[in-house]
Amino acid sequence: SYELTQPPSVSVSPGQTARLTCSGDVLPKQYAHWYQQKPGQAPVLMIYKDSERPSGIPERFSGSSSGTTVTLTISGVQAEDEADYYCQSAGVFGGGTKLTVV
Amino acid sequence: QVQLQESGPGLVKPSETLSLTCTVSGDSISRYYWSWIRQPPEKGLEWIGYIYYSGKTNYNPSLKSRVTISVDTSKNQFSLNLSSLTATDTAIYYCARGRAVTTDENWYFDLWGRGTLVSVS
Question: Which of these, A63, A87, A33, lies nearest to B101 by C-alpha position?
Fold first, then answer.
């Protein structure tokens, strides 16, 4: 079994760029996927296979991978982006990052 | 559009077995990797396992001894049984549609149910 590590929290001002990271030894060999979860709601797929964006997801959300770290980048953060974000690879989820827009 | 809906008891007793069903509407269950995922209150997500329509299963090693996932293609449903419950199994249980990345060694969840809260007490 392996682990995916995410920072517990990230804060950003509206209009700025947020970079959420997810680290794990398996990531050079396996794709990662990202989910957004707002309070009281089910998670929503935001990025799959490191950098693919599902239809309907705004272009300000992008993903990248480098070595043991994958990154979800939110460009021009909006207040509505405040949520918890989880990375996932196969049967493992990261602990989640709470994004606060201040 | 495709929808997933969880159903089952909201309260179960310790040591008993939880049984949940996910009904898939708008798409055939005879594709994809149908999964269960849970989230304890104020905590993160935990993958429980998946079933492929053929009946092939894959479970989280930490829960494997207590989990059974089954599929009923005639009803377009899949189900979760989790035995020997304790208070730590209290969580929101989600069903989700999984898509394999290349092989069944990695997958992602592109569609989720709303979730159902199960309390063990």
Answer: A33
